[in-house]
């Protein structure tokens, strides 16, 4: 993809889309211990890559069901996080959802082991380095946007974070585009 700026053609890289879904009910958070794949061993919300033809919201619902065995009955889009990795030209755009109610009983899957945490026992030392920055806004019911730069995948070197009034979801079903790196 390329953008035209002041008569010059500037190559841009379309971010890869992800979801991150966190039930927050009666003051407690449901997080999952990742049992395999990217971020194995970390506690995180539930989520994953948005598939071709899928909306971001549909991905959030699907991942919650696949990874925690529950179905959201009340979900709110609360954050947009951009992760930039020094060794990867394609940034990740992660849409964070808060689940206020669900059907079913959280259960362990081959990917995640769900556990409830009170706000003062969130295991930040076993979580992604960005989580400790935006989680207070999430817990306070705020809507937020942030960009986090990682070196060597796990080392956070720089970030920006701000509250926003409104977040925009990408319109319609996801249509991945080829990454062009200049
Ligand atoms: C760098 N700092 C980060 N901080 C907080 N959360 C992060 C994160 N980096 C990735 N995440 C989340 O981790 C999940 C990975 O998803 P991931 O398992 O790779 O996707 P998916 O389930 O589609 O893949 P498989 O089908 O298992 O290969 C996904 O929710 C994504 O938002």
UniProtKB/TrEMBL annotation:
GO terms for cellular component: cytoplasm. Residues 14-143 form the Nudix hydrolase domain. SUPFAM superfamilies: Nudix. GO terms for molecular function: 8-oxo-7,8-dihydroguanosine triphosphate pyrophosphatase activity; dATP diphosphatase activity; metal ion binding. It catalyses: 2-oxo-ATP + H2O = 2-oxo-AMP + diphosphate + H(+); 2-oxo-dATP + H2O = 2-oxo-dAMP + diphosphate + H(+); N(6)-methyl-dATP + H2O = N(6)-methyl-dAMP + diphosphate + H(+); O(6)-methyl-dGTP + H2O = O(6)-methyl-dGMP + diphosphate + H(+). Its cofactor is Mg(2+). Keywords: Hydrolase, Magnesium, Metal-binding. CDD domains: NUDIX_MTH1_Nudt1. Pfam families: NUDIX (PF00293). Gene3D superfamilies: Nucleoside Triphosphate Pyrophosphohydrolase (3.90.79.10). Its EC number is 3.6.1.56. PROSITE patterns: NUDIX (PS51462). GO terms for biological process: DNA protection. It comes from the Eukaryota. Monomer. PANTHER family: 7,8-DIHYDRO-8-OXOGUANINE TRIPHOSPHATASE, OXIDIZED PURINE NUCLEOSIDE TRIPHOSPHATE HYDROLASE. Oxidized purine nucleoside triphosphate hydrolase which is a prominent sanitizer of the oxidized nucleotide pool. Catalyzes the hydrolysis of 2-oxo-dATP (2-hydroxy-dATP) into 2-oxo-dAMP. Also has a significant hydrolase activity toward 2-oxo-ATP, 8-oxo-dGTP and 8-oxo-dATP. Through the hydrolysis of oxidized purine nucleoside triphosphates, prevents their incorporation into DNA and the subsequent transversions A:T to C:G and G:C to T:A. Also catalyzes the hydrolysis of methylated purine nucleoside triphosphate preventing their integration into DNA. Belongs to the Nudix hydrolase family. This is Oxidized purine nucleoside triphosphate hydrolase.
